[in-house]
Request: fold
Amino acid sequence: MDNKKYCLGCGVVLQDNNILQEGYTTSLENDICQRCFRMKNYGEYQVVTKSNEEYLDILKGVAETKDLVLYVTDLLNIEKNLEEIRNLIPNKMILVLNKIDVLPKSVKEEKLKDYLESKNIHFEEIIVISANKNYNIDYLLKKIKYHQTSKNVYVVGHTNAGKSSLINKLIKNYSENNRELTMSPLPSTTLNTMIIDINEHLTLIDTPGLVDVGSILNHVDEKMMKKISAKKEIKPRTYQLRKGQSIIIEDLVRIDYVEGEKNSFTLFISNDLKVKRLLNLFNNEDLYDKNKLTYDIKYDEDLVISGLGFIKIVNKGVIDIYIDKDVETFTRKSLI
Reply:
């Protein structure tokens, strides 16, 4: 029999022996660990590192069931390798596109769904929601009921996709359970698999988020992490650039437009981030000490910066990017 007690915030085993190890609490009578307590009450965050191998082992266990899976992704940061989890888990799966509230209201849901469907990755449904604004949650629950194969439904996705926010909303809307998961704008909040009974017909099983090792969130301090994480509707910023001009976002990334006709660069990033345009890249060497990447942009492509957002570029051209060598960037057909 398992006599261990688990943190109701992050799912880790509670212990009162070692303050330096995960799961520490001042008393085993407490329901949450010290880390969750300080995060919830004081906004403090302690980094806990788990390898993706540990997470993948958990997801392989999900694949051994026949249960429905919700794959939650952040619309501002849709993963390059979206099929990674899909290939790992053959179960029936609903793709949940979260955080529609941070995209401009002019963005049409059907266009987003069409874009994802064009990737030819099979999902039972693709549903656009906002866990934060309680948007489309009733519809999601209806589809969960329709596709359920048992009482159990697993929730998977990358860190910071909003899994805990979604589960907390489902608890609040449809359960008498007053439990609340620990939420944070930072990676690695949920440390273990957690079972949450919503009602007699539905039990959610929350899994740790896959760590996006290429996310910029892994390479900045806590203050910058909070600026990067968009909390309200983004106001896109458009810059008309000519060859020889640049855009610099904080001290995070520099984009030089080195070849092509006059071009439009629209930034879909947090409103809190400062952006400046350089009219002559040769008079400024800021961020040239960072890793340089060159992209040959085609018509209507996005430059995606993992964890930060994306930049829509209208015309073809050549750009140089200066960014931390460990941050993933890639181009794709324009999402919007």
Notes: Residues 45-49, 182-191 have pLDDT under 50 and may be disordered. The chain has three domains: 1-46, 50-212, 237-333. The longest helix spans residues 52-63.
